[in-house]
Every structure is written in C-alpha cells, then in structure tokens.
Amino acid sequence: MFNSQLRFLRLLATNLVVAACGDLGNEIDTVNDDTPPDLSATAEQELWTVVYTHPSGIKLVRENTGYGDRGAVYCPTNMVALGGGAFCSDGGLDQTYPIVRYDAGYNLIPVGWAEHHIGASSNDCRLYAVCAPQAWFPNAGDIITRWEASVYGTHTVDCGAGYRVTGGGAQCQFGDLDMTYPTNSALTSWSEYHRGASSNNCGTYAVCVRANTRVGSHLLLQTNRTGYGQGSALCNFPGIGSGIAVGGGSKCTDGDGGDFDYPSDNLDRWIEWHRGRSSYDCVASAVCLMNGF
pTM for the full model? Predict the structure, then answer.
C-alpha cells in the first residue's frame, strides 16, 4: 500500500506542476525535465487486473483500493486512458480524474485514472480505466488532456475546435465532488459540479481526441433519466447499432449525483449511483464508441 501511495503522489505532483504551466490542451514547449517519461516503461505502473478486452483491443483495467486511499490505476504498456471511474460499496467517491504524462513531444496525454473516497466503510472500492492502444493516436496532439482551475459550483472545460471529449472529472483539495458528466450531445466539453466551504481549490479535466481520428469520428452520447439510487446509460441505439462505453457520468438537478460512476464489466454501459432525498431527477450518461470503428 505504501508503494502504491508513493506512485500516486508522484503522478499527482506531475498533474499539479503541469497544471501550473497553463492550459493543458496546448503543447508545452519547455519543461524542467530533460527527458519525458517513456510510456512503454512499466516500472511505475500499478498492479492491475484486466477485467475485459474488447475485440478491437480496448481494455478495461481495475485496481482495488481501501478507505481513504488516493487510488491510481495505470493503463497497460503502450495504451492511453479514454475514461475512468470508481465504485465503492457504500458510495463516498470524492474525486475522479485522469492521470497525465508528457509524451515524447511534450504533449500531455492520459495514461491512467485516479480517485479519492471517504466513508467509514469505504474499504471495498474499485478503480477503473478504459484504455485504448496508443497506436490509434499516431500524431502529436491526437489525444490530449485539458485542465482548468475551478472554484465552488459548476465548471466546464471545452476540448476546442476539432476535438471531441471521451471522459473527464475533477480533483479538489478537500474532495467535495458532486457530479461529473459530458456537457452536450456534440461531445465538445466536460462539466463537473462541486460544493462545500472548502471547494475553492479544484481542477476540472477533459480527455479530448481529435474528431478525425479512429475514435473521435465514431462517438455518440447516450443518456438515460434515472431516479434515486443506481442507474445506467446503455450504449445501444435503435436503428444505429451498439457500442462500448469509454466514459460517462451523471447529472442531478439538486447536485446529489456522483456518489460513484463506473463502466460495466463488458463496457456495454456506464453505471452511476446517487443518493439524497431529492435525487429523483438525474440523467446517467455514457460516451459510446460505436462498434465497427
């Protein structure tokens, strides 16, 4: 567990230092490191379980975490993260967001997923990352992570012209994340909502892919209105076909969404769970990569 936390803290520091440099969607020309990390290296990667492998090569990986952990799960060698999420047996998810690293061209790309959770019984938590072959994004900037500082309330990060969003989340100094979700059906941005007296030091993340890539040109948003408790959005579109869920979240009118959100074990849907006496008007969402891409 100690080594796991050390690895996470190193990647957390990378996220924060990079964020301080400005908009993560732009290529960074100069950094302090002489040599960027090699994404084929596995020395710092967590021990993970491959839950599911899609025929296309996409993998769903999982790592189990315990109470109070800032968990981190990395994609397998030469893969990048399109989305991620977490499930705890009693809820209590506070933060969920991509882990970013430099590639050889000093572009920031997502290579895993992180989470933090609280709760007296939160000792049964599972952290997920949906990983795609890096070879699907052969050009610099084909997949990037955008980041913006945010304060109390709702914040949206736009992917920018020529990009579409596959996943996202938020990281707050004191937790307090309530909702995280794709903003619109065009999949051009990611939104999150957090509240609490200390929620003034947060970052909002969006994983963005170029619209003309193999992934970006085959994305659709699926939504499903849900009531109190668990709901999901199934990647099945009558008359169009089915797909796999690479990202998702939930939005509730009263802000009680986001106790947890995560992919199903076969990636056919994105699942969310929310609680609160007024959480009866929620929308579960899934970013679906359509089969045949």
Answer: 0.82
